[in-house]
Amino acid sequence: MSDVFDKCRTWKDYRIAKATGLYPYFRAIEASHGATEVEIEGRRVIMVGSNNYLGLSADPRVKEAAIKATERFGTTCSGSRLLNGTLALHEELEARLAKFLNREAAIVISTGFQTNLALASILGRHDIVFSDRANHASLVDGVRLSFATERKFRHNDMEHLEQLLAAAEPGAGKIIVTDGVFSMEGDICNLPRIVELAKQYNARVMTDDAHAMGVLGELGRGTSEYFGLEKDVDLVMGTFSKSFASLGGVLAGPFEVINYIRHKARSVIFSASMTPASIAAALKATEIIEAEPQRRARLLDIAEKMHNGFRAMGFDTGVSVTPVVPVHIGDQVKCFRFWRALHEAGVFANPVIPPAVEAGHALIRTSYMATHTDAQLDQVLDTFEKIGRKLNVIPETRPTVYEPVKIARPGSAVRSNRASETWAAGSAGLLADKGFSLEQLSRMSSREMAGKFFDAVEQLTWRAANLQPEDLRRLGGAPRKLWEKRSELGGVLLEKGAQLFMRNGSDGSGSDGNQAERN
Fold first, then answer.
1. Is the pLDDT higher at 195 or at 446?
2. Distances from the Cα of 334 to the Cαs of 432, 455, 492, in angstroms?
């Protein structure tokens, strides 16, 4: 008899990662020092894994505003906006953001994820949503919770989007939804072309500006301001957990649409409202964003420094033109090993693996704050270079030339940098050095492949952790040297075993009918 908990008991990924010391998630931060440095396990490390782009979470003015709001209203509203959870502060923030974003109205919702779920409330059975395949998971879920039909277009592929629009039912309601800045690779949507297609095919446009609001544009209003297309974008969404140093989200657009969402969205009317502290922090952050454009200028200067610093060493930062600076590693296990070495050297960054990126396209995602010092940034670059050479991610000597990065400064209208062959192959779904496409992988039995893989890796991991004298004799060569490096063998065997399996572990004949998909 099947048990719904069986999948939990047999899930091996966590145990394997913990056994090899390659588990990078849920790291408890014990203290923060000005946001750019944090304490983990009693050690102080430089934080380059946060989306606190303007560094406002540590700003004394923002913290004081949160404290005063708590003293005035308490710690929570204890209810939904619809009933008892609306404070005067909520209405003040909504009015302020509507004005800031040049929109008729705005609604604030408890989290950014819930803000995108509210999209479901305006989508009906006869509507069609056209979504970039690289959109954030919250947008994906917002569409799935609706009764609308979804059509996904390849990432930033405007020809594919036009094909889907042309093939759609002419009388259907249509909306194109896209991230403004894509959170993993740091490139920007082709909003000018999206707007053109929307007008041609009578579609609405919504941008998720979670990573753009406060960062892009002369005034920090996000992607549509950056391209000079604010009047052509119908709905704009943003989160407070990034540039606004708080927690929550905002959706802004025409009054009738926002008012409908206010009364119909389940993530609004069945969820407790933003806390007083969160509202006050976002209000104060909005004020600072408007008054201190030098923070954005500093942030973009830092982004340029880090992109070009990495590229000068031989690292591949891909297509990004923003303070999201991804460093391509490729192999998933090597990515975890790189992350661990960074952590041990005092740098906090984030390893990103499938399904957040395509298979074979694992990367270290770094992101920066306007408050990082040059000394901190130089230390990060120096640490990356040492580890990159040790793990053979970059060459022993720096390249003689490299292509400088373009940054999304106001008025530049750049969307992405030219991708290297490796980056383009990874983004297209080609497994690094393997030649397997996502389409080929989807024809394999994913359950069978995963089972064989994890069984093999678990055995290799156990063997590496419990080496016996006879193992060393069989390995030959220099047993003393091997013994001295025994703590590293688990990761080495895990990586080699994974590569061996991908070459020989499946004949590709099985199929479970599931198409590989990136959210």
1. 195
2. 12, 19, 9
Question: Does the annotation count 183 as an active-site position?
Answer: yes
Q: Is the distance from CB of 413 to CB of 226 less than 8 angstroms?
A: yes
> Whole-model pTM?
0.83
Residues 460, 389: contact at Cβ < 8 Å?
A: no
CA 28 to chain centre: 19
CB 392 within 8 Å of CB 382: no
Active site annotation includes 511: no
Give the whole-angstrom CA distance, residue 305 versus residue 55: 17
Q: What is the pLDDT of residue 332?
A: 82
| Residue 387 CA, distance from chain mean position | 23
Catalytic residue (choose from 155, 211, 305, 328):
211
Q: Is 343 a catalytic residue?
A: no
Burial of 256 (0-12, 13-18, 19+ CB in 10 A): exposed
| Of 71, 325, 297, 81, the residue nearest 187 (C-alpha) | 325
The answer, yes or no, to whether residue 228 has pLDDT greater than 90, is yes
What is the per-residue pLDDT across 411-456, written as a single tens digit (0 to 9) for each? 999 999 998 888 888 877 664 445 444 444 444 444 444 444 444 4
* C-alpha separations of 462 from 22, 99, 144 in Å: 14, 60, 41
Is the model's pLDDT at 385 over the cut of 80? yes
Q: Annotated catalytic residue: which of 50, 146, 183, 271?
A: 183
Rounded to 5°, angle at Cα 386 from 14 and 463: 35
Q: Which of 90, 136, 152, 242 is catalytic?
A: 242
Residues in Cβ contact with 45 at an 8 Å cutoff, skipping those fewer than 6 apart: 37, 38, 39, 343, 346, 347, 348
